[in-house]
Design goal:
Blueprint (H helix, E strand, L loop, with lengths): L2 H8 L1 E9 L8 E7 L5 E7 L8 E3 L5 E6 L3 E2 L2 E2 L2 E6 L11 E4 L5 E6 L5 E6 L4 E6 L11 E4 L19 E2 L6 E6 L4 E7 L6 E8 L6 E6 L5 E6 L4 E9 L2 E9 L10 E7 L5 E7 L3 E7 L6 E8 L5 E6 L5 E6 L4 E7 L6 E9 L3 E6 L4 E2 L5
Antiparallel strand pairs: 1-2, 1-30, 1-31, 2-3, 4-5, 5-8, 6-7, 8-9, 10-11, 11-12, 12-13, 14-15, 15-16, 16-17, 18-19, 19-20, 20-21, 22-23, 23-24, 24-25, 26-27, 27-28, 28-29
């Protein structure tokens, strides 16, 4: 790399957004900049006005930030809400947002489909997934579809009812929606109707009783997917060889042998090159690393790294696969790791930032020039 190229790289940053548990009059959403070359991490903005923005998403162009408000009621009406905030192209400041009810309590996850025609929200205590059509430019319309679950699982404390914990669109353009339900030990699968407006049940993929599936992530090639069992501390691989159908393969523990403490899984993510799968453990307070076999795709345990804080509810990888940022809810800190390319291990960089109850980390896929404050 020439000197000029290095200078350009040093001026590029990953834009990172943090969601937190917070009262409406506290800081709930934080914007960071991560120097893509040096790892310098800087807070650039903080926002309140939304209660418990526990999960965030950006559209592909980075012009709208979507956030759930994880509450049981909104202004006297049952259920939480979702807010879509336009972002100023130059300053990256959040503008007043479009608010929509989620028609279910405790919304905890949201995702846009690959074509950005739909936004799906999972309501953990509402037993339902709500879908909103997106207008040109990303503005959400009124809720159009509500997919409701019924049933329970063997754990009387955590599986007394359905608990949709994520809503993940398939890689083939968004025709299928995959919903890990912690209460049912299934990934519920839905298909988009031919009219492009309706969604119907398309089947389900079973986990082991008591697994409590939480989050789900597809491999970059779209040929497999991985779900974490929050209650069983496992990661399970599925083959995705036919649209809308998951074939279950191996399950591995996310905890090291001999660990006897209390712990539960939270987030799962796949490296951009598809070689590694990462899972966060709350209690063991670590990132578990798994290697994907080059020929078979089978997962192999590859170690654990402390998140240097307690209760890592979420983490994210930068799109170049070089950095991992972990959010430790109970120690109010964000910790940066550089990914070692050959082993996939996250290496602590001596860089962390304070943040109150951080529970979600997302990275804008478009690198930007560093701001004056960043």
């Amino acid at each position: 790399m020439g000197t000029g190229e290095a200078r350009v790289a040093d001026n590029l940053a990953w834009e990172i957004w943090i969601g937190s548990y917070a009262a409406a009059d506290q800081v709930g959403i934080t914007r960071l900049e991560l120097n893509a070359a040096t790892g310098e991490l800087v807070k650039t903005a903080e926002y309140g006005g939304i209660e418990n923005p526990s999960f965030l998403a950006l559209n592909r162009s980075g012009t709208i930030l979507y956030a759930v408000s994880e509450t049981t009621e909104t202004e006297g009406q049952p259920g939480g809400r979702m807010i879509a905030y336009p972002l100023d192209a130059a300053t990256r400041k959040l503008a007043a947002g479009w608010e929509r009810l989620t028609h279910g309590a405790d919304p905890c996850h949201l995702m846009l489909d690959p074509e950005e025609k739909w936004l799906a929200v999972a309501n953990y205590s509402g037993a339902a997934v709500t879908l909103y059509p997106l207008e040109e430019g990303g503005k959400p319309g009124e809720a159009m579809v509500r997919l409701r679950h019924t049933g329970s699982g063997p754990n009387p404390k955590r599986q007394e009812a359905p608990h949709p914990h994520a809503a993940v669109f398939g890689p083939e353009g968004g025709q299928y929606l995959f919903v890990p339900d912690l209460g049912l030990d299934h990934i519920m699968i839905y298909a988009q109707g031919e009219d492009g407006r309706d969604w119907t049940g398309h089947g389900a993929a079973a986990l082991s009783p008591g697994d409590g599936p939480r989050h789900f992530a597809f491999h970059p090639d779209g040929g497999s997917g991985y779900v974490v069992g929050e209650l069983s501390n496992t990661v399970t691989r599925f083959i995705y060889s036919e649209p809308g159908k998951l074939e279950r393969k191996e399950s591995l523990s996310t905890l090291p042998g001999g660990f006897t403490g209390e712990s539960s899984c939270a987030e799962v993510a796949v490296s951009p090159n598809g070689r590694f799968v990462y899972v966060s453990n709350r209690g063991h307070d670590s990132i578990a690393i798994f290697r994907s076999d080059d020929s078979t795709g089978q997962l192999q345990a590859a170690g654990h790294v402390s998140t240097r804080g307690r209760y890592p509810r979420h983490f994210a990888l930068t799109p170049d696969g070089q950095w991992l940022l972990a959010a430790n809810r109970d120690t109010d800190n964000l910790v940066l790791f550089r990914i070692e390319s050959e082993t996939g291990l996250p290496i602590f960089q001596g860089i962390e930032l304070p943040a109150s109850k951080p529970v979600c980390v997302i990275v804008n896929g478009n690198r930007r020039g560093l701001s004056e404050k960043g």
